[in-house]
Amino acid sequence: MYRFALFVDGSNLFGALKAMNLEVHDYERFYSYLYREAQVGWHKVTGQETKTAVQLRRIYWYVVGSIDEWDLSLPQSQSALRSAFERDRSIHDYWMQSTGRANPELGGATLEEKSWIACFSDFRSWYDAKRATLANMRRFYQGVRSSTDLIDVVEAGHWKVDFIRKSVSEKGLDTSLAVDMVALQDSYDVAVIVSGDADSIPSIRCPVGRVRPLRRGPAAPPCPLWGGLRWPRANGARALVARRRPARRRSDVGRPSGHPG
Questions:
Q1: What is the DSSP letter of 64?
Q2: Do the domain assignments include residue 163?
Q3: Range of the domain at 230
Q4: Which of 25, 37, 56, 253 is the most exposed place for a label (fewest CB within 10 A)?
């Protein structure tokens, strides 16, 4: 019997579902569907003439679990952020112009100070919303954990905050996925990586080299990893695991949905 394990790049998955305007309501069923598709593809890749016994042992779902912590009430935090505001001329000039248009009577140091206050207030609102989003995501993951023993949600990713640009960059998720593939290699025979992110490919070169090759016989090609899952063409198959997300009303913005993406 060949043991399968799914290693899922959760951020990439949420992005793909969002781009397709799809909402998943049963992730255990969703991943079971991907597993069945993986079996079909794996049998074709390995050239097996007869069906081989297989078993899905575990789904490792890697997600973001933390964010840079800023105590914005501290003078040290505000001083650091103001220095960054002053260094970035494009952002600095944007807020100067925006504040100047709203307050044409201001100028000089007064305008500079009011521009910084407006920028800081805008960032604080954005940052609080990001933290609330992450908190909702973590509650969602806990719900998944409590509903199934098959899925192991791994909060390995971290959001690094760019204050000036009001953006986050994800760190650590793909590296943790690759490291765990090596550490857990004795618990599976076939690894299926669920990700469309080409940037993660260098991170899996190590596990590709270390995982035992699988062979049906002397002539069968090694196939420790299998990739290439495609979304089903048939609408009926798609409906098994997901549905189109309805257009969100303005009052719905910020509410958790079937997935936290």
A1: E
A2: yes
A3: 2-68+145-252
A4: 253
